[in-house]
Each structure stands twice: as C-alpha cells, then as structure tokens.
Predict the structure.
Amino acid sequence: MAVKRKDSKGRILRDGETQREDGRYMYRYVDSSGNRKTEYSWRLVETDAHPAGKKRDISLREKEVQIQKDLLDGISTNNSTITLNELFERYIRTKKRLRQNVKDNYVLMYGKHIKTGYMGNMQIKSINKIDVLNAYEAMAESGLSNGSIHIIHNNILFPTFQLAVDNDWLRKNPTKDCIKEYPYDPMNKRESLSVREQENFIGFLNGDKVYAKYLPIVLLTLETALRRGEILGLTWDNVDLNKGILTVDHQLYYHSINGKYQIKVGSPKTELSNRCIPLSLKAIAILKSIQEKEYFNSVGSGIEIDGYKNFVFLNSQKNNVIIPRQFGDALTAACVKYNKKEEALAQKEGREPDLLPMITPHVLRHTACTRIAESGVDIKVLQTVMGHKKVDMTMNIYNHADLNRMKKEFQKMESLKAECALM
C-alpha cells in the first residue's frame, strides 16, 4: 500500500501537491494547452496563518479550485500570464478600423499613464478591481482630468481586458463598473459658460495685448461649435461665404509618432463629424474680418500639411499653424490673468470678484452648443452641427438648455403676477 504524503503539520497532501523544504507549498498541473504549470503559496488552506515577512496570497487549495474551474470552462491559464502591457499591444493591433490619429492618442495615453505604472508589468490574471481603482486614483492625484480618466477607462482599459475575456484568457473583466465607483459624474460636470461669463471673457480678450490674437478663434468657435482640431485645421477651401456654409472634413492634431511630436492633418473624430454647418451672420462677419487682417492671412504662405493649405489661422510668426495644445494653454493662461485682475479690482471696489472657471477649447464648444440649444434649434439639427455620434450626447446639453428656458419663462410669470398684484 502506497504511503500517503503529508506536510509539516501532518496533513495529507493531494495529488500534485508538494511542500518544499522552506515550507512553501506547490501544485503541479497540466493546462488546457498541455503545458506543465506550477502554482505556489505559503499556506495550504485558507485558515492557515500568513507567515511573517512573506507576501500575502490566497492558499494553495483556493488556487487549485480556481485552476480546475478555469480548465473546466476552457479558460486559457497560459495566456492569462501575459502582462497588461503585452495585452494592450495585442488589443491595439486589432483596431484596424480605428482612425490613425485616434489610435496614436490612445497609445500615447496608455504609455504615459499605465505602461510605466505598477499595473503595466503585472500579469493580467493578478489584476483585480482594487488595482484598477487605485490606478484611477493615482491618475487623479497626478492632476489628470476626470474626462481623461473616463477616456482611459472606456476606450483603453475596459476594451483591452474585454479582449482577454472574449478569448477565454480571463474569467471576468476587472475594470467592470470601476468607473461607476469613481467619484465623478460626467453628466453633472459643468462644462459651459453662462452668458455673463462668456461676455466677460470676450471683453477681456478684446482688451488684452497678449491674448487678443486668440479672440477671432474664440468667437468663431462660439458660433460654429467646432472641436479644437477642427477649427485650428480649418482652411479657406472649407468656407463658402457666398452660400454661408462651412464644411468639416478634417482636423489638426499634434501627437507623438515614433517618439517625436508632429503636426498632422487627419480625418475628423467620427464619420458623423464629416458635416456641413450653416454659418450665422455673425460667423460670416468674423470670417470676413479675418480675411481682411494680414495677421491670419495664410493664402500664398506656402504652408502645407498632409496636402492641406490656405489655413484660416496661423501662429504669430505666420510660419506655421497654431498647435492645438498651444491654444488650450493660452485659454488657461488668459483665465488666470483675468481672475487675478478681477480679484484685485474687486478688492479695490469692495465687492465680490466675478471670476471665470478654467476655460478650455472643449468648454467653448460646449458653450456654443448650449447657446444654440437655448435658441430652440431642433435636437437633430443640433446633433448634426455638433457632429455627435449619438443623440444622447446632444440630449444632455439640450435638456439642460430646456431647463434654463423654463426657468426664464417662470421668472416672466412671477414678474407678471407681481405686476397684477400692484393693480
């Protein structure tokens, strides 16, 4: 009769289980691909105490249950040992239909915020929900915006892990529902300026020697609701002042390509972003004014990027277009300057300062959308103007604008009641 093997505590060991001389337990098995594998743990069962100074881990028997369940369900334990960085490389290679500029941006964001972090070199089977939440918290503490964290979750991490789930490399997606627990609700985030804030900002730009050069871009954005890359990449070939139409068929972007930042012109964000926008009388006046000013006159300048030329906006040296990041930084700096000036003036006049929130190109676009919605434009027309892929995105702004209109109507009613009471 065969002698049953026991551990140092006299417990009978099962087939495949062994205890090494240093006290560590190991379990040998054959995975679904026929490869011999070994799992280790300092504890045999869950009730065993964690040895002092050793890494905390689940017990060997708990691991055996997971292994057998994975083998029964066809989960490939072999592929689950790849790192998150390796998984992302496989995922991004599958995105054949993703526009190159969007793909470059995802690779850049992953490399900056995930690849060099602690999660990047972890085996995907070892990553759990708390790891993902900790990673998001670290991004927030480093100053990354909530919107960027949502992009990383929705467009990078979640689909990357879902690739492993769909191929039976993982049982479940560790990022599932993580963004719901993250303390940020994008629908409640205030992204548009009030009419007063909009007027204050325009008035400041108009009178400032440093930032006045950006006023035409701001004014045209508020009239057309173009994205940052769309308005900075706008060419006179896209503008028909006689018919009052602006065509959007490309955008400007500035991304790292093979480790070097380059200005490129590519397709708009989505297929629906290819659109024609009717120009308001104010927008036509702005464009005519730009045409007359030598500062922005690029016709005949010889500047050409990926086959596009005659750009509406150029930098102060008129030797290149305006880099998208430069425009965003200028808006932020202008807000800081305005607020400092306003705080000093308010203190001198003995009143509360009328400060501006931080303004970005997206805030300008969102503000333009809000003003258009407040004017009562049809929701489907507004969706086309914005180039939104889903009407839900437009509805969030449209409904908010409807609420503002209702408040104004109720205020009129209250004023009317007050007048009647005085009769």
